[in-house]
C-alpha cells in the first residue's frame, strides 16, 4: 500500500520528497508563467459577497475546466499582487487555491491545492506567530493575527492526485489563510470585534489597487 501511494504521488504534477510532501520550490518562475499565460485575470470578490461566507463545494471533476480555473487564478493573483488566492475570491464556489509565496527562509513556493484539509498539529509544534495579515478580499486592511508558524495541508493537485504541502513562517500563514477561505472564513473573522471593525475601517478609507466586484 505504501509503495502504491508513493507511485501515485510521483505521477502527479509536482515531484515529492522522501516524506511525501510536494517539492514546490523548483522551476517556480517557469511554472507560474505557464499557468498565467493561459489565464485571464478576473476581479476580486470582497467581504460581504455571499460566496466568501460559506463552505465551498468539493472539486470532483478534474479536467480542462479546472485547469483553466487554475490558470485564471494565477493571472488574477498576479494582477492583485497577492501570494495566495482561493477560488471563491474570484466568485467560483469550489475548493481550490493557488499560491506563489515566499517562506521565511526566502524560498519561493508555487502550486495548486484542491480540497485542502489542514493537518491538526500536536501541541509542541504550535509555536504562534502574531505577524500582520492581509487579504485581497479585504483590500488595503491589515491586522496582527496569531497563527502557527508551521502548517501542513493535504488535498489533491489539479489532476486529482493526492498531495501533501507543508510550509513555515509566512508560507505557513498562507496555507492556513487560503484553506480558511474555502471553508467560508476570512482572516478578519478570527479577530476581536474591535480589530475587525478597524480592518473594515481601513478598507473603507482606501482604494484597492486592483479590480474588485462591488457588492450590491
UniProtKB/TrEMBL annotation:
Its cofactor is Fe(2+). Fe cation binds at residues 135, 177, 181. GO terms for biological process: translation. The keyword Amino-acid biosynthesis does not apply. Its EC number is 3.5.1.88. CDD domains: Pep_deformylase (cd00487). InterPro entries: Peptide_deformylase (IPR023635), Peptide_deformylase_sf (IPR036821). One of its GO terms (molecular function) is peptide deformylase activity. Pfam families: Pep_deformylase (PF01327). The active site is at 178. Keywords: Hydrolase, Iron, Metal-binding, Protein biosynthesis. SUPFAM superfamilies: Peptide deformylase. Binds 1 Fe(2+) ion. Removes the formyl group from the N-terminal Met of newly synthesized proteins. Requires at least a dipeptide for an efficient rate of reaction. N-terminal L-methionine is a prerequisite for activity but the enzyme has broad specificity at other positions. NCBIfam families: pept_deformyl (TIGR00079), PRK00150.1-3 (NF001159). Belongs to the polypeptide deformylase family. This is Peptide deformylase.
